Mediator of RNA polymerase II transcription subunit 18
Amino acid sequence: MVHQLSLVSSIPHSKYIQTVSTLQALTGLANPQDIATYTLITKPHNIFKPKFEPGKVNQIEQYYMKCTTTWSDEASTSFDISAPILKGGDNDDVLADRLFSGDEPVERNWTLQVSDIPIAGKNQLCSAQTIYESTLVHTHTTVKEGPSAPTAPTAPTEPTSEIPQAPTEPEPATEENPASTEVVDLDAMDVDAIEVDHVDLTGEDDKKDTTEVKEEDKKETQVPEVATKNAKKDSFLQFIEDLGYDLINQYWVKGIRFFHKDIVIEIFKVFVRDDTTESSHPGRIKLKLLDESNNFQIKAYINIPKSTDVELINQGNKDLLKIQEFLKNLFELQIPDRMFMDSRVKQ
């Protein structure tokens, strides 16, 4: 949890070079840090609808959640952010790779973030809001399971008409007979909960010792995973759905970041999916600017560890006001509208 103080602004594309040169001289960073992130916006499955009663105040709030990871494909490093992105221009074809489109394991760091509405007040010097976030590591994997049969009750010693005879044993899987191996869609979290051995319904396997059966089960579950077309992939979207959230939107951010004392200054553009035109590459998504005027967005912020540390908050406000005064002839840093930063789910 952090308490964030922030000011925002925007500049036209024509002022980008001048702004970067000024911030390089101010911060002493000749090579600012690159920003390339991909963010999912999620909403809770079940919306809480309180029962309104006289004299009773609803204290339960639900929030949209942001899931952010790095945007690390060819598109994030190939195009130049300093060049304007115009429709029909040379720099217009921005293509982002689809996540988890390959069969190779991909490990990504995801940051789940929920933010409260900024503090209200007429005398606020900066926008102040509390942010809760957690970072996890998710690995895209491909899971394969061998043939399985439903669990049957203990068969009697003499077969009856109600119990079908055991089917003919299938031929072993070979290069000439690849169809003998069946692939079942399976999520990685359910591997240990499903038995993968054959069950003989004739009762002939009842004579085997129980410990031998368990050893065979253990050996079968340790078969190395093989990537196949019918195998199910452990997607991060499935994790979000199990967590109780639905995906409602997504966006990409590309820009640069400066550091001045405790202040972080970010200059970036926001991209969204372009559904008006089809991508020439089936494995990629065509992107377009959210703000088609090619303006850059600027955010200057300070993160305070605790919202109760009044001394650090006051010092942070003073530092942001100093940078605001210093850069007022270049761009004007302002307090954003707190209603646009309200991430609460409307009842």
Residues 159-164, 178-211, 223-231 have pLDDT under 50 and may be disordered. Residues 310-326 form the longest helix (17 residues). Residues 2-48+60-141+235-341 form a domain with the Hypothetical Protein Pfu-838710-001 fold (CATH 2.40.320.10). The CA atoms of residues 134 and 330 lie 36 Å apart.
